[in-house]
Amino acid sequence: MQATHIELLQGMPVFGALREDSLRLLLEGAREIVVPGGVHFFHEGDAANSMFVLQSGNVAVHKHWQGQELRLHVLGAGDCFGEMALMDLLPRSASVRAENDCRAIEFSSVDLMQLYEHDVEQFALIQMNLGREVCRRLRAMDELLFRWRMGEAPVVMPPLFRAA
Q: What pLDDT sits at residue 164?
């Protein structure tokens, strides 16, 4: 099973250029979880210390605003979410709910600390990758905000959670 997980991670920008031994180390501490459809991975405002890599199923990312639940994105297999928790140590900024039965790998800050203790260069690489992912999403949102402020409504939302 670990070979399948390594292959999945190697295809993701967040884990790009990490050596196989580093991925194996991360996977040793990671948890594989199953979340039934309709159940939340986490809620907006929850304490956060992990990120998830979706192996199967679909999840909806949503926020609450003035008593309404607003869907921001739908993610599928191969996408990651919750990565901001590994960088800013703040509560969850949105909720994520399984739209159908999902299987995911959960990586905690403890898993990253083990990588740091094992190989600081590989740790720095994953931190840079996480930073790039967050910056890519911020850049896309900045563009949307700019277009909205200029009176141009987007026809299609950009794929914020996928590799550029």
A: 29
* Cα 81 to Cα 57: distance, rounded to the nearest angstrom: 13
Domains with residue ranges and CATH for the chain: 2-149 (2.60.120.10)
Residue with tokens 């992912």: 133
- 135 alpha carbon, distance to own chain's centre: 13
43 close to 92: Cβ distance less than 8 angstroms: yes
3-state secondary structure 26-58: HHHHCEEEEECCCCEEECCCCCCCEEEEEEECC
Q: Which pTM does this prediction carry? A: 0.85
The DSSP bridge partners found for residue 142 are none
**pLDDT tens digits for range 17-74:** 999 999 999 999 999 999 999 999 999 999 999 999 999 999 999 998 898 888 888 9
What's the longest Cα–Cα distance across the chain? 51
